[in-house]
Design brief:
The protein is mainly β. The chain is 8% helix and 38% strand. It has three helices and 26 strands.
Length: 444
């Protein structure tokens, strides 16, 4: 700028001295310097006024400035027209946090005249803001709360602020973000449209002229989805009937109690089947945990251990019933009426002619148990295991067929040991539908 300004002024001076005006009374012009306004870290506005041309046309006017007193046209400066009157000048390419001295000037045939000197200091050069990220709160499956605090604006106005987040570390405003006002101080942010059971990285951000600054990074996980599903089918099968009938086609799909155990001396084995409709869970869900729960009925005896196995063959539930949830239910097994649809010890669906046999009497299931429960005599019996989780994962994803589970015990003694649970019919009859066999699934 100095070189260009000097060339322009030199040319103007040369023209002045080549003019025909030879009046010996010509004086230098009179000029005043205006106060500097609109000051930033790199520019400002000023100007001056030529109040007298000294008897010769003012061919160049403007301001000059520098970091020393009494700047001249050899310093930085502007050219802002000709003649008398007020003019406006723009000071550019300044350095932040610096004190400058400014004088207006005007050139006529008599030479260069300078106005009074004024001084000003530029604003500090903007730097990135300083801020922190607030702790997460109100975390749900798909939303959370956070925010930030801008403690230093970096010498420039904060024009945007909020939080940004990503599944990857060091999120930026190119990822998901909120917009939460401007300026310094605390602000609150709401993160929405999150995925359940995922780990997110969060940082507050603030933008000023220097760019976008980020606060400390916080990591949190959204809640997984928890759903409880009640049995869609349940039934009990018996290898025999009290009185030692021999055909093995005994079951009870409609009874209000499910039975598992052994009755002595009649030699009756009882096993319970249960199945859950899992169509409400997305096929791409990742199963985190599974809890299978049964509520004890009003009668039955202690069994130290009951195992759960995944069933490998389809079966049906009928309506045959032999006891209610609130009686002693001493009978084990009922002969199925012709045309019934109950599952029995021998058949997946009763036919009366063994037309729908299990591949093995007593049910077809995996050789390894999915879960084992130690019966502590509580009002409910809970099963939770990696095996149950794997079973549900396979059913949901479609890699295996959902035929439910079978409960059986290998604890056989010379005395009866028969545990009874409320079936879904028993839960309805009792008015406590949440006591039906139930499956609690946590997934994301």
């Amino acid at each position: 700028m100095k070189k260009l300004l000097s060339l322009l002024i030199a040319f103007a001076v040369l023209q002045s001295f080549q003019s025909c005006d030879s009046d010996e009374d010509i004086k230098r012009a009179e000029v005043t310097t205006r106060e500097i306004i609109d000051i930033t870290h790199e520019r400002a506005s000023g100007g001056g006024e030529v109040v007298s041309d000294g008897g010769s046309d003012v061919t160049v006017r403007g301001i000059c400035w520098g970091i020393q007193h009494d700047p001249t046209i050899e310093s930085d400066g502007t050219t802002d027209g000709t003649g008398l009157g007020v003019f406006t000048s723009e000071l550019t390419d300044l350095t932040g946090g610096t004190t400058y001295f400014v004088r207006a000037y005007a050139i006529n045939k008599a030479g260069v005249a300078y106005g009074n000197e004024v001084q000003f200091t530029t604003a500090p050069t903007p730097v990135l803001a300083t801020l922190s990220t607030m702790a997460m709160s109100n975390i749900t499956t798909n939303s959370a709360s956070s925010g930030g605090s801008v403690t230093d604006d970096g010498n420039a106005d904060i024009t945007a602020r909020g939080v940004c987040w990503s599944l990857n570390a060091n999120p930026t405003i190119a990822d998901f973000k909120t917009s939460d006002g401007s300026g310094t101080g605390d602000f609150s942010s709401q993160l929405t449209s999150l995925e359940p059971g995922e780990t997110y990285h969060v940082r507050a951000y603030a933008t000023n002229l220097a760019g976008t600054a980020y606060g400390n990074e916080i990591t949190f996980s959204t809640n997984s989805i928890v759903t409880t599903v009640y049995a869609s089918k349940d039934a009990t099968i018996f290898n025999n009937q009290a009185g030692n009938a021999a055909n093995g086609n005994y079951g009870a799909g409609g009874s209000e109690l499910l039975q598992v155990g052994y009755a002595s001396p009649t030699g009756i084995y009882a096993r319970a089947l249960v199945q859950f409709d899992l169509n409400g869970i997305p096929s791409d869900a990742v199963i985190e945990s599974v809890t299978l729960e049964f509520t004890l009925g009003s009668s039955g005896t202690f069994i130290p251990q009951i195992n759960v196995y995944k069933v490998n063959q389809s079966w049906t539930e009928g309506s045959t019933s032999f006891c209610t949830y609130n009686n002693s239910c001493n009978t084990q097994g009922v002969a199925i009426s012709p045309g019934g649809t109950d599952v029995t010890w021998n058949e997946t669906t009763y036919s009366g002619s063994n037309a729908n046999p299990w591949s093995a009497a007593g049910g077809v299931f995996t050789s390894t148990s999915s879960a084992t429960s130690v019966d502590a005599g509580a009002s409910t019996v809970l099963y939770t295991s990696a095996g149950l989780k794997d079973d549900v994962q396979g059913w949901v994803s479609g890699t295996s067929s959902n035929f439910g589970w079978i409960l059986k015990t290998d604890f056989i003694t010379n005395t009866s040991a028969m545990r009874r649970f409320r079936s879904r019919e028993g839960a309805t009859a009792s008015g406590s539908t949440d006591t039906a066999p139930r499956l609690t699934i946590v997934y994301h």
